[in-house]
Amino acid sequence: MKITALTENTTEYGLPVEHGLSLYIEALGHKILFDTGQSDLFSKNAEALSVDLKKVDIAVLSHDHYDHGGGLKKFLELNDIAPVYISCFAFGERYHDERYIGIDKSLRNNGRIILTDGVTKIADGFTLYDCNDREKVVDLASFGLTMIKNGQKVPDDFRHEQYLLIEENGKRVLISGCSHKGIINIQNWLNPDVLVGGFHFMDIELGDRLDSYAKTLDSFNTLYYTCHCTGVEQYGFMKNRMKNLNYISTGKTIII
């Protein structure tokens, strides 16, 4: 399995970056695009990295935020074959304070969009989970992210978030966007061999709370590749406390 970061907040390879995430994955004979960042930058970086997005045959949007789905329209223009799997709870009203952070609602009716709910097998070895029926071990709250429900702005429950589990060569590899439902919860629910994605720790102070989270994650027999919303300082803090924590930045490819 090969995973390349087309868009992430940082880079070691001289590529342009943005606050967002887009991963290109090759596994089990498929070419997968997981998230599209916040603009068309993912496509420009794909070209620079010799990734042909026209050959992608599966696309997944992890959740209903602009920094993961902002490039969706561009992808649909570039690629005319891949179905795009998005939660049935997406295309809602999402805010950070007063700023709208949802994705383009006009794309909901595109014939390539497949709405998911619960557990969705999308191909042999590829399964999407939203874990909406699972009980949380740790509640990280919403960090000021909200949604509109019954005409009122309330804390986002992140029902629109889903995770891609890839099972290949005896390994269970989980791809997450921001882990808004809580990375520790996700670990308890799915317990993969490898986890790639953001932890959404960027607003957590470097201290006892983050130290506790690091130790809890380290108690799992999981190899982590984190990015994006984990936070660079938070990553450095946790790296000193975890034996299997790594970072994937824009332009980097990992082989699993």
Task: Give a topology summary.
Elements: E1 2-7, E2 22-27, E3 30-34, H1 41-48, E4 58-60, H2 66-69, H3 72-78, E5 84-87, E6 94-96, E7 99-100, E8 113-116, E9 119-123, E10 126-129, E11 145-149, E12 152-155, E13 163-168, E14 171-175, H4 183-190, E15 194-196, H5 208-218, E16 223-226, H6 232-239, E17 245-247, E18 253-255
Parallel strand pairs: 3-4, 4-5, 5-8, 14-15, 15-16, 16-17
Antiparallel strand pairs: 1-2, 1-18, 2-3, 6-7, 6-11, 9-10, 10-13, 11-12, 13-14
Rg measurement, Å: 17 Å
**CATH class wording:** Alpha Beta
- CATH-assigned homologous superfamily: Ribonuclease Z/Hydroxyacylglutathione hydrolase-like
| Spatial sequence of strands, sheet with the most strands | 8-5-4-3-2-1-18
What is the first-to-last residue Cα distance?
Answer: 5 Å
| Discrete helix count | 6
Provide the residue-averaged pLDDT.
97
Number of domains: 1
Unreliable residue stretches: none
Question: What string gives the helices and strands in order?
Answer: EEEHEHHEEEEEEEEEEHEHEHEE
Question: What does the main sheet amount to?
Answer: 7 strands, mixed
**Outline, from the CA principal axes?**
globular
CATH topology: Metallo-beta-lactamase, Chain A
Tell me what portion of residues adopts beta-strand conformation.
25-35%
Total number of beta strands:
18
Which structural class matches the secondary elements? alpha/beta
